[in-house]
Write a structure and sequence with these properties.
two-stranded antiparallel ribbon; 6-stranded antiparallel sheet; 203 residues; alpha+beta; 5 helices
Length: 203
């Protein structure tokens, strides 16, 4: 078996997963156990585990032993003009930051204006985070007459990786939406991150 040591280890662990020796939900042995069993260094183990996270075969938060991922349920987003994420399973955190230059331009307010931010995790019935949403607005929530949404490829950031259990750099969709009042003023800005292994976008 060729390749770098971490690639060889990743191939061996991948076989354990694909053959069912490590079933979905199985907690991977500790780094120390893998080092002893395979007679390799810690760096090799870390890179092999990171590789399998990137492939979506392992999941879990960083600094904790990962588990073998269940095959993901793939959802389809058919409309971008809905309230994201919705549902009682969303985990929400509210704050009142000062808008930086980019956000101020999107919201049509001066830089350093205090805005309302809501950060939410979309959580499925198994407690797995399947999407991340952040909305910003200035003042009270208002109705909108129109919207614009840009959908672009995105790589999961380190912070997003902590929340989703995916590897940093994993592929995702980034939906950037602005809602407008009838007079054309922005009333809400929203960013939605959807991992590509968990979502199709047909909007």
């Amino acid at each position: 078996m060729g390749g770098a040591p971490y690639q060889r280890l990743a191939a061996q662990l991948r076989s354990l997963i694909q053959n069912g020796d490590w079933p979905p939900g199985y907690r991977v042995p500790s780094h120390a156990q893998l080092q002893t069993e395979y007679r390799i260094g810690r760096g090799v183990v870390e890179r092999a585990i990171q590789q399998l996270r990137h492939e979506g075969l392992l999941e879990g938060v960083r600094r904790a032993r990962p588990t073998v991922a269940y095959p993901p349920t793939v959802r389809t987003l058919v409309s971008v003009d809905v309230d994201w994420p919705g549902g009682r399973d969303a985990k929400r955190a509210d704050s009142r930051p000062l808008a930086d230059g980019d956000l101020a331009a999107r919201l049509g307010v001066p830089p350093r204006t205090r805005v309302t931010r809501q950060s939410m995790e979309m959580v499925d019935e198994c407690g797995v985070t399947v999407g991340l949403c952040t909305t910003w607005r200035h003042g009270r929530r208002k109705g909108h007459a129109s919207y614009r949404c840009e959908i672009v490829p995105h790589q999961i950031t380190a912070t997003e990786a902590e929340l989703t259990g995916l590897a940093a750099g994993a592929a995702a969709w980034l939906l950037q939406r602005v809602r407008y009042a009838a007079d054309g003023r922005p009333v809400e800005v929203a960013d939605l991150v959807l991992p590509v292994d968990r979502w199709r976008v047909r909007a």
